[in-house]
Amino acid sequence: MAANFYQQLQSLLDEGLTVAVATIVNVKGSTPREIGAKMIIHPYGKHVGTVGGGCGEADVIRAGLDVLTDGQPRTVRIDLTEPIAMQSLGVCGGILDVFIERWAPEPADTEPS
Fold this sequence. Notes:
Blueprint: H1 2-14, E1 19-28, E2 38-41, E3 48-49, H2 54-70, E4 74-79, E5 95-103
Antiparallel strand pairs: 1-2, 1-5, 2-3, 4-5
């Protein structure tokens, strides 16, 4: 998956899009994905990959859109330790930290050759 992920990332950058990349950097307990799992947060909603799905991933997407807006990387903590119930939004029982950073296309070379 890693090669395909980076190919898709490069393709988006080649299209001139700035995206956010979310990476799980720490886990505690049972989580849906492992350290190193990545997701591209596309400014127009066409995301690539996953950091776990559900409401936790929705929080990561919202934070990724903030990163796209202000350029400031951040880490989001997703807490999935709620008791299992019909209303529970996350029931894995763990906590994961997701680092989100902005990736932008390289500026075009404007010097004559």
